[in-house]
Amino acid sequence: MNKEQIIADLNELFKQRKEFYAFFDAKIPKKEGLNIFDFEKLDDANLRDFHKLFHRYDYAIRKLLPRIYKAYDIDMDKDLSKDF
């Protein structure tokens, strides 16, 4: 796989991540005056569990990204789309 394909795949990954967070923003209430999810006000336990699993997955991906950037000589500021 070449650098251009990796960059395209990463941009698609970030686009999909943004869609997940848009879904969470629409479904999970926020704490008053803060941009933090308020799970105490959330009635849907399934959505709470889903967010928890997604957050673990997202964290694992974010830990891996610096290695991918280094392996493919990707400049995060120059090469990647900022739509995430």
Helix content: 55-70%
Q: Specify the number of helices.
A: 3
Distance between the termini: 23 Å
Contiguous low-pLDDT stretches (5 residues minimum) are none
How many strands?
Answer: 0
Indicate the radius of gyration in whole angstroms: 16 Å
The secondary-structure element order is HHH
What is the structural class?
A: mainly alpha
Strand content: under 5%
**How many structural units, i.e. domains?**
1
The largest pleated sheet is described as: none
**Morphology:** elongated
Report mean pLDDT, rounded to a whole number. Answer: 93
Structure, described:
This protein has 84 residues and is mainly α. It contains three helices and no strands. It has one domain (3-79). Helix content is 67%, strand content 0%.
Quick overview:
The chain has 84 residues and is mainly alpha-helical. Helices cover 67% and strands 0% of the residues.
Topology (SSEs and partners):
Blueprint: H1 3-27, H2 45-71, H3 76-79
